[in-house]
């Protein structure tokens, strides 16, 4: 099955409380002022060229976020980092050479936040898949990095299908230790 980025972005637009940007190659309203920022971003993170679907997302949509208002439960906070107002100034590549392209926090009810970071390999030494950094609260906060999805579009399709509420159970079919 071939996944279409623009169709997934249109479906993502239907998720409650979502904001999707306009990149320099947006299909209907390009923000040409982001062309230089995208060029610089790809020069700063050259390994991203190994993830062409993510690069295409940045070209077309710049980034996205989901931000439920206070008092709504369950709720999700999702930051799909990119360029322009979706940029993260520093800290996207960690000490293990993983690049965090998305951070998700889920509040099932007040004071029950679970967080997952979705990652690409920045070292060119691991598989070119989407990884997830999981914190196992049952084991005193032990952090694991696992292979979560075969690619960015599969990950994005899961975000759409779950309306941003991605949990370990949502991607266990793809799960394999890295």
Structure description:
- It comes from Tuwongella immobilis.
- This is SMI1/KNR4 family protein.
- This protein has 178 residues and is an alpha+beta fold.
- The protein has a single domain (5-177), classed as SMI1/KNR4-like (3-Layer(aba) Sandwich).
- Helix content is 22%, strand content 28%.
- It has four helices and eight strands; from the N terminus they run αβααββββββαβ.
- It has helices at 5-12, 35-44, 52-61, 152-162; strands at 18-20, 64-67, 75-80, 98-107, 113-121, 130-136, 142-149, 176-177.
- It has an eight-stranded antiparallel β-sheet with strand order 1-2-3-4-5-6-7-8.
- It is globular.
- Total number of distinct structural domains: 1
Classify the fold: give the CATH topology: SMI1/KNR4-like
User: What series of H and E elements makes up the topology?
Assistant: HEHHEEEEEEHE
Unreliable sequence segments: 169-178
Helix content: 10-25%
What is the CATH architecture term? Answer: 3-Layer(aba) Sandwich
Rounded to an integer, what's the Rg over CA atoms? 16 Å
What structural category arises from helix and sheet content? Answer: alpha+beta
- Biggest sheet, spatial arrangement of strands: 1-2-3-4-5-6-7-8
Straight-line N-to-C gap: 25 Å
Q: Main β-sheet: number of strands, strand sense, barrel status?
A: 8 strands, antiparallel
CATH C-level category? Alpha Beta
Organism: Tuwongella immobilis
Protein name: SMI1/KNR4 family protein
């Amino acid at each position: 099955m071939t996944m279409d980025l623009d169709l997934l972005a249109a479906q993502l637009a239907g998720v409650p409380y979502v904001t999707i940007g306009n990149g320099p190659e947006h299909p209907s309203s390009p923000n040409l002022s982001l062309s230089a920022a995208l060029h610089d971003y790809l020069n700063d993170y050259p390994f991203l060229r190994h993830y062409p679907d993510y690069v295409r997302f940045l070209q077309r949509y710049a980034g996205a976020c989901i931000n439920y208002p206070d008092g709504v439960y369950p709720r999700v906070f999702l930051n799909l980092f990119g360029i322009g107002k979706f940029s993260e100034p520093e800290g996207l590549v960690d000490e293990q050479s993983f690049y965090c392209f998305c951070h998700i926090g889920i509040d099932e009810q007040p004071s029950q936040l679970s967080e997952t970071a979705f990652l690409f390999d920045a070292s060119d030494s691991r598989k070119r898949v989407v990884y997830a950094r999981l914190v196992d609260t049952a084991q005193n906060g032990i952090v694991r990095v696992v292979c979560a999805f075969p690619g960015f579009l599969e990950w994005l399709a899961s975000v759409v299908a779950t309306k941003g509420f991605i949990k370990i159970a949502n991607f266990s079919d793809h799960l394999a230790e890295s």
